[in-house]
Amino acid sequence: MARLRKKPGFLYITVMQIQLENLVPVPLRDKVLQRSSDIWNREVTFTPGHFVKIKAPSGTGKTTLIHYLYHIRYDYTGQVLVDGRLWQSYNKEVIATMRQQQVSVIFQDLRIFEQLTAEENIELKRVMISQPYCTTEKVKEMAARLNVTHVLSQSGKTLSYGERQRIAIIRALVQPFKWLIMDEPFSHLDNENAQRAADLIGEECRARGAGFILTDLDNDTRFAYDTHYNL
Amino acid sequence: MQSFFGLLRKIIQTGIGKTRLLMATLGLAIAMLLLLLAIQAHTDFDQLLHSQQNQNESADFLVINKKITNAMMGQPTKSEFSPEEIADIKKQSFTDAFGYITSNQFKVTAAAPGELHFYTDMFFESVPDAFIDVKNEDWKWNTGDNTIPIILPNDFLNLYNFGFALSQDLPQISQETVKALPMKITISKGLITQEFTGRIVGFSDRISSFLVPGNFMEWANQKFGNGEIAAPSRVIIKTKDPSNPILVQYLDDKGYTTNQDKIKYSKTKMIVQTIVSVIGFFGVILLLFALLVFSMFIQLVIASCKREIQLLVTLGTAPRQLRRYLMRQFIPLYIVTGIAALLVLAGLQWWASGILATHNMFVAPMLSVFTFGAAILVVLLVYIVNLLNVRKYVGEIS
Question: Ranges for the ABC transporter domain (chain A) (predicted)?
Answer without folding.
Answer: 18-231
